[in-house]
Amino acid sequence: MKEVSKLMGVRDSIRVVDATLRDGGLVNDFYFTDDFVKALYDANIKAGVDYMEVGYKASKEMFDVDKFGKWKFCDDDDVFEVLGDKNPALKLAVMTDVGRCDYKNDVHKCDESPFDLVRVATYIHQMPGAIDMIEDAKNKGYEVSCNIMAITTAQESDIKVALEMLGKSPVDVIYIVDSFGSFVPEQLARTADMYNEFAVKYGKKLGIHAHNNQQLAFANTIEAVGDGVDYLDATYNGMGRGAGNCPMENLLSFLKNPKYQYYNAIKFVENYMVPLKESGVKWGYDLQYMLTGVLNQHPRSAIAFTKDGRGDYCEFYKEIMGID
After folding, report:
1. Contact criterion met (CB below 8 Å) for 207 and 232
2. Helix, strand or coil, per DSSP, at residue 209
3. What pLDDT shows up at residue 9?
4. DSSP secondary structure of 9-56
5. 18 Cβ contact list (under 8 Å, min separation 6)
6. pLDDT in tens, 264-318
7. Which of 109, 252, 278, 288 could form a disulfide with 305 if both were Cys (CB 3.0 to 4.6 A apart)?
8. Over the stretch 12-39, which tens digit does the pLDDT of each residue have?
9. What is the mean pLDDT of the chain?
């Protein structure tokens, strides 16, 4: 059982990261209006959120700019135009995917860009590429974090090798990522212990990015807080790929630091997230996502099930189980 003080007290090292535009953008192909983005920015400042992830630095050679909103690419000029100059009250972050971005050309020097934090997303087998991206971003003056994705399908020995590589790199924060929403809190605790060994050894911070396939994203994030994880990802109304993420309004209401004001999160949900859902944008827990989470599978089949408007959950279960 966690020490009560770890959950009930204020830990000044905690940082809340809003991933609504980035993970939520996977739901609507990043077609957020400028008004939505500016209102989200203002809401984050009022709510005391520490970082706002604006989207991806995706390669325009690989992805068709006509098929996605501008937050898929996060051109510096677009960010400056909508959000203005840097504000110390809220740092901006952007995600770079290994093999899916032109980071050497599209990620400019920190003092010339609107961003403070570059988040590198990688799979285990891409670690050399991730290290190169981390070093590039660090040399350009950024804070840098790294998300090792799909760790629930990787061998523990391979994860430890990856953590050793990251420990020796200049990365600032190493993220525990529950890509498929398959973790339960006890598993998250064991994983945090493993990550902590390397974080302590190399002086790194840890983060958590949870998905809500089993309605455990908030529970797993709380677990991570008790395990000493400092960087906490969340999205407003839980908006994110498939089943979504840890809801920002839940997280802020849980944290005891008076700097976090969850009323402002509720206000943004009421004014912007509810109308977004009513417009037909779909995300959040449902049985098809629960099934892929329980089976530790990528949610792509559940996403397709949702897009097709299906409701035959039992047939879907047999499909993903390979039952004829």
Report:
1. yes
2. strand
3. 80
4. S--TT-EEEE-HHHHHHHHHTT---HHHHHHHHHHHHHHT-SEEEEEE
5. 40, 44, 49, 51, 52, 53, 234, 235, 236, 248
6. 999 999 999 999 999 999 999 999 999 999 999 999 999 999 999 999 999 999 9
7. 288
8. 999 999 999 999 999 999 999 999 999 9
9. 97
Q: What are the tokens at 323? A: 């039952």
**Domains, the chain, ranges and CATH?**
4-278 (3.20.20.70), 287-321 (no CATH)
Q: What is the residue whose two structure tokens read 């972050």? A: 93
Tokens of 7: 């959950």
For strands 205-210 and 173-178, give the pairing.
parallel
Alpha helices in 87-203 (DSSP H): 103-106, 127-139, 156-168, 185-202
Helix 300-307 vs helix 313-321: crossing angle, to nearest 10 = 150
Amino acid identity, residue 171? V
Reading phi first (left if > 0) and then psi (alpha if -120 to 50, else beta), residue 42 is in alpha
